[in-house]
Amino acid sequence: MTKQAKRGPVSSTSSADPRALWEAELAAARLRGAEFSTVSQSPLQALYGPAEAPLDYERDLGYPGQFPFTRGVHPTMYRGRLWTMRQFAGFGSAQQTNERFKYLLGLGQTGLSTAFDFPTLMGYDSDHAFAEGEVGQVGVAISSLEDMQRLMDGIPMAEVSTSMTINGPAPILLAFYIACGERQGVDPRELRGTVQNDILKEFQAQHAWLVPPIPALRMITDVMGYCAERVPQWNTISISGYHIREAGSTAAQELAFTLANGMEYVRRGVAAGLNVDDFAPRLSFFFDSHIDFFEEIAKFRAARRIWARKLRDEFGAKDPRSWMVRFHTQTAGVTLTAQQPENNIVRTAFEALAAVLGGTQSLHTNSMDETYALPTEKAVKIALRTQQLIAEETEVANVIDPLAGSYFVEAETSRLEQEALATFAEIERRGGVVACIDSGWIQKEIHRSAVLYQRAVELRRKKIVGVNCYEEPDGDATPLELHRIDASVETDQRARLADLRRRRDGARARRELEAIRAACRSRENLLARFVAAAHADCTLGEIADVLRQEFGIYKEPKIL
Amino acid sequence: MSTRRIRVLIGKPGLDGHDRGAKIVATALRDAGMEVVYTGLHQTPEMIAEVAVQEDVDVVGLSILSGAHLSLFPRVRKELLARDMGHVVLTGGGIIPAEDVASLEQQGYAKLFGPGTRTEDIATWIQAEMQRRWSDEGAAR
Amino acid sequence: MHAPTAESLAERLLRADRAALARLISWAENGDARFSAALDRVYSRVGRAARTGFTGPPGAGKSTLVNEVAKAYRGRGATVGVLAVDPSSPFSGGALLGDRIRMEERTLDPGVFIRSMASRESHGGVAQATVDACDVMDAFGLAEILIETVGVGQAEYDVVAVADTVVVVLCPGAGDGIQAMKAGLLEVADVLVVNKSDLPGADRLARDLDEAVHVRFGREQAFPVPVVSLCASSGEGVAELLEAVDGHRAWLAARDLPAARLAKRAERVRKTVDAEVSLALWGRRGWGAFVAAELAAGLAPHRVARELGRRVSETLPPAPGAPESNFRGERA
């Protein structure tokens, strides 16, 4: 190779500025008829260079495991340990889900992740009138400590880490888990896992709430306080952008609203008298990995940098673990299509790869059949194998943050950071996160983005294979075998609850419920009371009823 | 001078909190010139039917992504019939397997829409359906 | 319920059939020719309900407040009708009617009837439809009728003006007292509410409003408009609001409530006729084109106006049955 060739292509007219020349060529060229923007409809340039990514390496990137953690939270990243492959699972009865858990552990999965049914998510027992037709449908029905014991039967709770996706009644389910461990003879200090417990995003996007924001936030600080002392390895909250994104937000909004929620929890914890470094290291995050490969990778990197700066510089956290965004990722359910469902395997693979290149700590990959029903074992296996394939075959796990220094990825990282900071200022101007929930502003912003995206798809400015391009006449027939929940799950669950209420010490259960009522009216830690109530076989719905009576029921604001 | 507009109720029965689709459809139907009553989340079948009565709607559209459609859709219809609202066009959508769609369409649901449906197609379908009914009624009701 | 007649619907309304009430309101909204025949049949029962209007800027918490007020009236044993008016889209003519979302706990109460109404595009038509809807709710036997609308323009003022008592709802942040005065909201208020009294700035807003209405009170012989601070989301202060509304009703009663209602209705008729006449002249009779041509020819606007004014005066008919008055003389 000559010296000249090494420097790259050189224009024949040596006097012309190569950039100007290229720009002229681009401007004169005929381009394909597409909208050049991210899936969030943020405009994109044809080319990025040093001018678009002005970085101070030490200040903006640094080294893995070091402030501001743009390159990752661990010094070794996936050379030390691969991400945790954690498939979200739950359906039917506790026993059925227990079997699925064991199946997944047998396939080489390294952590459990529990999906609950809607009655459980909303704090109703399986035998409540509102639960009719919904028991076990989208997750497992857990109404009591005994249900939790059936769920964890034969699974060593001291060894496995368990994530529970529940929010409004999260403290109650965590109490069932702690009590269940105690019955297995496991010290709460040994329990590892995460409870989602992120109520702010429920009001904003996911809508499985229990009581209004202020008492809900009090319960969250109770969980943080209790766990800091007695369940020290537990992640007390998983601050989630996933549902915000699935509800239709852009990538920038997902990032901004999630981190704004995180900062609100930190403020509440500090206001409740906790030291920021006592609970901030146990905060974890949960993001969506959508279909726009580079925008997503940039989003994960920006999240780490923003949080580190905020926690160190604004909240005065001293412990480096308080500065770190450790996060779980799930591939984007909304990108799955009912049409040509096998294509979903490919979508999920791209999304999973983005999460890995973005430095996730754990990952769930969606199954191809989830636009029809809960996944079958076969579909779940392919989804898990997708992760294993990325980990073992592609060799991407060998190098830390391999896209750093890409002009484009760095420019996108900075763009998302800037948009998030602007949104924080706007939230502040509107009186903070809770005021923005009450007024419906955040919900309206998300809805607006969802409508804009839908229009773009209907106008074919954004393409979805099998839906608005490359359609097939039978594309939406259901060729897949479906996973159905038998109606007997509901009747059996009702019978078990009736039996429990007969067998238990009724007077003791009533005493514990009254003690919860008293704690609601004082400043006593509610999680401590829930653990005692769990041991007395009080049910989820009974405990939640006391909370609803004491704290009221949340009513959504008018968004439309 | 009579100016009649299509009135639609968009309802979310059950405990399912996924309202992205319901709200997008409500917005799209508004943009297609309809008057859309949105009930909000977590409605019982009784509540939806009662709102349909008070609002005198022409169309009830339900959205369910919770898998509870085989229980909730027929219950909403039963409550509507109990209130003498059999004339209402029943439709909906969500995560509903094809065989369930067929079953519900036999049980009085005029049409159910699946994932990936264009909102424009929903609006066009409703307009055509109402056109047909109104011309049957001779525009007076 | 296929194509019922005016008679059958009126008869069902008197039997407290909620679907019949709902259909009659639809007829009122649609300007259906059968409506007035139906109303005629039940008009003897109109006039028993108390009508209270609620207006204010977007985000002031009107729906939440109306829900609480409905609850409080139910607590007094009264039945309640709610009419929630939302603007129609000027682009599509459609509307999103979402006020019920704040009132869902009233949905299954047989003593409550809630109806959402779109303002549609007609000139003053929504106000007429509101009166008609209130009349049929009244004839149905609902004791307290609450009318809610966003206070953003003349059409909305017209909507609440059909009420006996108008409550203007404000909250700190969503436009201060000065803003409200500029928007003309204070002019229509019989009772002023400062909602979200727990927010910073609420006390200040209440004081500003108090001062403003005192100025107005000092100027004319009018009802001394009370300013009520409350928190609709917790229900705190709603009892005081009901007392204030009661106070206004007592004041009206002492000053001949039927006459006040009559005056409001007369005003309503006048506005509707004005709109009709204006539409006829400028639309169908070609006045717009005439004016454009005259002005283009260089005539001064006041000359053109005087000419048209004379023309209209010369041809206006007297009221039906009234003697021909010498209005030319009046003008001179």
Give your account of this protein's structure:
The complex is a heterotrimer of chains A (560), B (141) and C (332). Helices cover 48% and strands 7% of the residues of chain A. Chain A is of the alpha/beta class. Chain A has a domain of 375 residues: Methylmalonyl-CoA mutase (TIM Barrel), CATH 3.20.20. A 5-stranded parallel sheet of chain A has the order 1-10-9-8-7. A 5-stranded parallel sheet of chain A has the order 2-3-4-5-6, with helices on one face. In chain A, 51% of the residues are buried. The N terminus of chain A is likely disordered. By secondary structure, chain B is of the alpha/beta class. Chain B has one domain: Rossmann fold, CATH 3.40.50.280. Chain B contains 5 helices and 5 strands. In chain B, strands 2-1-3-4-5 form a 5-stranded parallel sheet, with helices on both faces. In chain B, strand 4, helix 4 and strand 5 form a beta-alpha-beta unit. In chain B, helix 1 packs across helix 5 and helix 2 crosses helix 3. The longest helix of chain B is centred in the last third of the chain and has 19 residues. The radius of gyration of chain B is 14 Å and the shape is globular. The two termini of chain B are 15 Å apart. The mean pLDDT of chain B is 93. By secondary structure, chain C is an alpha/beta fold. Chain C folds into 2 domains: 212 residues, 3-Layer(aba) Sandwich (Rossmann fold); 68 residues, no CATH class. Helices cover 52% and strands 13% of the residues of chain C. Chain C contains 14 helices and 8 strands. A 7-stranded parallel sheet of chain C has the order 4-2-5-1-6-7-8, with helices on both faces. The chains are: A alpha/beta (560), B alpha/beta (141), C alpha/beta (332). Chains in contact: A-B, A-C, B-C. Chains A and B meet through helix 5 and helix 18 of A and helix 1 and helix 3 of B. Strand 2 of chain B pairs parallel with strand 3 of chain C, so a sheet runs across the interface.
User: What would you say the CATH architecture of chain B is?
Assistant: 3-Layer(aba) Sandwich
Number of helical stretches of at least 4 residues of chain B: 5
Strand residue content of chain B: 15-25%
Q: What class do helices, strands and sheet pairing of chain B give?
A: alpha/beta
Largest sheet of chain A, if any? 5 strands, parallel
CATH class of chain B: Alpha Beta
Shape verdict of chain B: globular
Return the CATH architecture of one domain in chain A. Alpha-Beta Barrel
Low-pLDDT stretches of chain B: none
Helix content of chain B: 40-55%
Query: Order of strands across the biggest sheet of chain B?
Result: 2-1-3-4-5
What do we call the CATH topology of chain B?
Answer: Rossmann fold
The CATH superfamily of one domain in chain A is Methylmalonyl-CoA mutase
Distance between the termini of chain A: 64 Å
Look up the CATH topology of one domain in chain A. Answer: TIM Barrel
Helix and strand run of chain B? EHEHEHEHEH
Mean pLDDT of chain A: 94
The helix-and-strand class of chain A reads alpha/beta
Overall geometry of chain A comes to: globular
